[in-house]
Design goal:
Distance between the termini: 25 Å
Order of helices and strands: EEEEE
Number of strands: 5
Oligomer: single chain
Organism: Halomonas aquatica
Shape: globular
Protein name: CPXCG motif-containing cysteine-rich protein
Number of domains: 1
Number of helices: 0
Radius of gyration: 12 Å
Helix content: under 10%
InterPro entries: zinc_ribbon_bacterial (IPR025990)
Strand content: over 45%
Strand order of the largest sheet: 3-4-5
């Protein structure tokens, strides 16, 4: 992981709506992962889509632990 591969994105927790900055590692390509909310500690499901051509973020989806992303 290189620092230039990290992008900061402002998001809101799907549980408590707290805004926070999420660091996304683009070097991993498209993937799904989990992040805990910094305020309520609820598990947030993330789906990260990275363009295979440009290596840029195509989409970022957040959901609750029981959502289907």
């Amino acid at each position: 992981m290189n620092e230039e591969d990290l992008e900061s994105h402002g998001v809101n927790c799907p549980y408590c709506d707290t805004p926070f900055d999420l660091l996304v590692d683009l070097s991993q390509g498209s993937h799904a992962t989990w992040e805990d909310c910094p305020r309520c500690c609820a598990p947030i499901q993330l789906r990260i889509e990275v363009s295979p051509v440009s290596g840029e973020l195509s989409s970022l989806a957040l959901g609750r632990d029981d959502d289907v992303l």
